[in-house]
Amino acid sequence: MDENGIRELETRLQQAMLASDVDALGTLLADDLTFVDATGKVWTKTDDLNGHRYGVQRIEQLDVEEQTVRVYEKCAVTVTRVALRGTFGGAPFAGSLRYTRTWCETGGGWRIIAAQCSLVPF
Questions:
Q1: Closest CA to 94 of 77, 106, 82, 105
Q2: CATH of residue 100
Q3: What string of H, E and C letters represents the secondary structure of 25-39?
Q4: What is the helix (H) or strand (E) element at residue 68, kind and residue range?
Q5: How far apart are the C-alpha atoms of 16 and 2, rounded to whole Å?
Q6: Three-state DSSP state, 44
Q7: Most buried among 20, 111, 112, 117, by the most CB within 10 A?
Q8: What is the domain range of residue 17?
Q9: Are 95 and 70 in contact (CB under 8 A)?
Q10: CA distances from 85 to 3, 50, 61, 94 (A)
């Protein structure tokens, strides 16, 4: 996998997040995913998928502001700053977040095995 391939996976992920496409997200996330959100809460793949499946989180806008990609033999790390807007638990949110994702080649293809996001101050 090269940098362009990882960028394409990131684009597919962003599209799936915007559409709450649980099937696409299920393909891109490793079964043993660990995701730490901006509050420090740890999410599993099931938690993330259910958040989209049941409307707990809805992303209405996701604009990539900057992104770096580093590719190694069987893994890659992306650091992406995005402007987000949507709802979580029915409450509106908007802000700038920075995501760090670790993609690894697994038996089922390239998937996110770990991710973390943090708020970016204005």
A1: 82
A2: 3.10.450.50
A3: HHHHEEEEEEEECCC
A4: strand 57-71
A5: 21
A6: coil
A7: 112
A8: 3-119
A9: no
A10: 27, 19, 5, 4
* Structure confidence at residue 121 (pLDDT): 82
Picking from 22, 29, 28, the residue whose alpha carbon sits closest to that of residue 55 is: 22
| pLDDT digits 0-9 by tens, 47-93 | 999 999 998 999 999 999 999 999 999 999 999 999 999 998 899 99
Answering whether pTM is above 0.70, one says yes
Amino acid at 22: V
Residue 1, judged by CB atoms within 10 A of its CB (0-12, 13-18, 19+), counts as middle
Compute the C-alpha angle 55/51/26, nearest 5°: 115
Q: How many domains does the chain have?
A: 1
- CA 81 to CA 106: how far, in whole Å? 26
pLDDT in tens, 83-121: 999 998 899 999 999 999 999 999 889 999 999 999 998
What is the token pair recorded at 23?
Answer: 């099937």
Residues 6 or more apart whose CB falls under 8 angstroms from that of 64 comprise 14, 80, 81, 82
